[in-house]
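Hello forum,

I keep getting stuck at the same step: I have a sequence, I want structure tokens, and every attempt I make locally crashes halfway through. Rather than fight my setup again tonight, could one of you with a working pipeline run this one for me? It's a single chain of 190 residues.
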Amino acid sequence: MTDLNGPEITRLLRAARSGDPSVQERLLELVYDRLHGIAARLFVGQPLGVTLQPTALVHEAWLKLEANDGEFNDRQHFFLVAARAMRNVLADAARRRNSQSRGDGASRVPLEDVLSLAVDDGSALDALVLEEGLTELERLNVVHARLVELRVFAGMTALEAGQALQLKPSEVESAWAMAKAWLRRRWSQS
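Reply #2:
Ran it on my machine without issues. Output:
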């Protein structure tokens, strides 16, 4: 397994700016398993009728990443953009699904389960509620929203997300607690 913290991803991201398709293919090989693992955890407990599946989520997110024309500073920036792409794909799919059929019987996942990606009670992730909450949180505190985004949609640990956001460990701990509290309150009002 490739060390996702190693310099190879950053080197490939810089080389990808040349437009060489073989570099893009190698980059996808390196990050695919991590992105697919994150997507799979996001889909645990989804109803069988959900048409978007983890593989499709990764592929749609990858298309968005390719559209970025290789303009990534480093691996942290790449995973930040990847998290945003996965978040957007999930939210768009949820909007389409909700516009086609309201009240399909899916139950909400407790916020703690969403934030820890430990959804194991057979209920569905309410991607729209999370998206709306994150959008509101972005208006109040961009760093807190990015932290949640990196932890949930990029599968980063608190330490990795803190490094990506250039936060000290104590700042990460405080920001994570405040973001969870704010989203918990927002979630309970939905």
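Confidence is low (pLDDT under 50) at residues 102-113, 116-124. If your local run keeps crashing, start a new thread with the error log.
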